[in-house]
Amino acid sequence: MAVEDAARILQLVVNGAASGCIYGLIALGFVLIYKATEMVNFAQGDIMMLGGFVAFSLIAHFHLPYWVGGLLAMLITAAFGYVLDAVVIRRVIGQPQFAVVMLTLGLGFIFRAVAGITWGYDSVGFETPFTNKTVNVGGMILGEDNLSIIVGTVLLCGVLYVFFSKTRIGVAMQAASQNQLAAYYMGIPVRTIFSLIWAISAGVACLAGILLSPVSMIDVNMGGLAIKAFAAAVIGGFGSIPGSLVGGVIVGIVEQFAGYKLPAGFQEVTSNVVLLLMLFIRPQGLFAERMGKRV
Q1: For residue 25, what are the domain limits?
Q2: Is the CB of residue 155 less than 8 Å from the CB of residue 70?
Q3: For residue 133, is it within any domain?
């Protein structure tokens, strides 16, 4: 009996970590944009939804291989994020934060309407190499779809670490996020860098949608996961890239145990409960960073 309980606990942890990785990827988009521009993009979840639908079209309709279609969808969504910043978001730089909040919320509504008109309001999905496949690990039956989410998130973290620490563009992005004026005087094209950050954020959101597709179908309302992702970002320390992922995993694991131990309905509010507890205990989050005011 004890062995079965241990296997069940480990299975809940793995499933929770997989859900948490999705929250963490969405939260990562929040954090990347906030660190660079001090804006909060409340349309991040809806960009994930658009990326998922783009991948669906490429893989299910145009019959591209999963890996090719997924990569192309990320590139298309990243280009969309770049254009979105260059054409729309840049116009509100310097305006009160409330204007940015209302703009991104409004964009989210527009994205959902466009997705509904283009792809319909029914849930859709596409075949992946991990769909309906399981592995047996010491008596635990784990879905390959959940494992693919965890592995994909780890690989993405490695790629982003190398990009931000080893490449000239990545270092320029870090410099611009720390001090815009100093970066400008050093010859860094700050506006272009910010648009590239929006592109990376959109590409990461698309990856979250692709990884989520074998577990949960793609629909116009899937962007609602951004609420839990926002909680994850706050728990990890808004502005901390590692914190966003750790916060997401915490929310995902706690959700799984809440669904297993507590009555029905409690699982959906778990992220809010954890968020409130964190605000009481450590308002700055687990991995708070000093954010100096940029001129």
Answers
A1: 2-281
A2: no
A3: yes
pLDDT(290) > 60: no
Average of pLDDT values for 144-153? 90
Report helix, strand or coil for 143. Answer: strand
What confidence score (pLDDT) does residue 171 get? 85
Residue 199 · residue 78 · CB < 8 Å: yes
155 found inside a domain: yes
Residue 89 lies in a domain: yes
Q: If DSSP states are collapsed to H, E and C, what string results for 201-234?
A: HHHHHHHHHHHHCCCCCECCCHHHHHHHHHHHHH
Q: Tell me how crowded residue 178 is: count the other CB atoms within 10 A of its CB.
A: 14
- What percent of the chain shows pLDDT beyond 70? 95
Mean pLDDT, range 157-182, rounded to an integer:
84
46-67 burial string, b = 16+ CB within 10 Å, else e?
Answer: bbbbbbbbbbbbbbeeeebebe
Structure tokens at 238: 């808004």
In this structure, what token pair is assigned to residue 266?
Answer: 């409690």
Q: Which token pair is 279?
A: 């605000």
**What Cα–Cα distance (Å) separates residue 80 from each residue in 67, 87, 111, 261, 285?**
20, 10, 12, 42, 31
Q: Which two tokens stand for residue 221?
A: 């309302």
- Please state whether 136 falls in left (phi above 0), alpha (psi between -120 and 50) or beta: beta
Q: Whose structure tokens read 């410099």?
A: 175
The candidate with the shortest Cα–Cα distance to 289, out of 178, 153, 165, 181, is: 178
Burial label for 87, CB within 10 Å (0-12, 13-18, 19+), is exposed
CATH number for 207: 1.10.3470
Residue 227 makes CB contacts below 8 A (sequence gap 6+) with: 45, 271
Does residue 292 lie within any of the structural domains? no
| Per-residue pLDDT reduced to its tens digit, 244-287 | 999 999 999 999 888 888 776 777 888 888 889 988 988 888 88
